[in-house]
């Protein structure tokens, strides 16, 4: 059976860690990518959106912004993230020696349907930006013909341990990281576990 790979993804702000693991459990690639360029805000729902509806105005970095401006800014960041995700996954696919068959991305909570509603909802605006970046990555993966797996970060280490048939997943992931060298941090281990759990 031909080798393939799964890329596990963890996002933080507008960046993401991609850890690609072959179906024989070899670590193939580990990289961090930025989905948007300097000059764009990283959390437009949470920051500019909140300022537009009167939240966090006492913070030292707050500035006046209208709701229409905030909505337009969210759209601008979303479009930039879509391009960044496409570019990042294309570069990854070109640099690994096997076909990537899937991408594992953290499951997204439900959000109100419109940007305005997400900004207005005090709970939704706190994670709407993270969901925006995850969905950009999922769309980019699907456009490449990759299967998208949605993982639960509370369950993923247990699932990875079952795939490896081991009782100490932390030790197994630490050993995997030694092949790549530093940095091999908690985000890398989570992404690796996500890839493994979907083999």
Enter the CATH topology name: Nucleotidyltransferase, domain 5
What is the CATH top level name? Alpha Beta
Number of helices: 7
The number of domains: 1
Please report the total strand number as a whole number.
Answer: 5
What's the arrangement of strands in the largest beta sheet?
3-2-1-4-5
The SSE string, one letter per element, is EEEHHEHHEHHH
Share in β-strands = 15-25%
Main beta sheet: strand number and arrangement? Answer: 5 strands, mixed
Which homologous superfamily in CATH is the superfamily?
Ribonuclease H-like superfamily/Ribonuclease H
Shape-level CATH architecture = 2-Layer Sandwich
End-to-end span in angstroms? 14 Å
Structural class: alpha/beta
Shape: elongated
List low-pLDDT spans. none
Fraction of helical residues: 40-55%
Return the average pLDDT rounded to an integer: 96
Radius of gyration: 18 Å
């Amino acid at each position: 059976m031909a080798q393939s790979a799964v890329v596990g993804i963890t996002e933080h702000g507008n960046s993401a860690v991609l850890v690609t693991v072959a179906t024989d459990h070899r670590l193939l690639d580990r990289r961090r990518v930025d989905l948007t360029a300097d000059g764009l805000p990283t959390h437009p729902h949470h920051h500019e959106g909140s300022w537009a509806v009167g939240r966090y105005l006492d913070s030292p970095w707050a500035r006046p912004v209208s709701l229409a401006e905030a909505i337009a800014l969210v759209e601008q960041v979303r479009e930039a993230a879509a391009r960044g995700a496409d570019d990042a996954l294309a570069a990854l696919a070109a640099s690994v020696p096997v076909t990537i068959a899937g991408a594992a991305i953290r499951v997204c909570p439900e959000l109100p349907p419109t940007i305005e509603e997400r900004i207005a909802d005090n709970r939704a605006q706190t994670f709407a930006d993270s969901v925006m970046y995850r969905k950009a990555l999922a769309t980019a993966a699907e456009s490449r013909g990759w299967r998208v797996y949605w993982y639960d970060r509370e369950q993923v280490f247990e699932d990875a341990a079952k795939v490896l048939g081991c009782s100490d997943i932390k030790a197994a992931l630490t050993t995997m990281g030694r092949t790549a060298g530093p940095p091999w941090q908690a985000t890398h281990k989570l992404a690796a576990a996500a890839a493994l759990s979907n083999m």
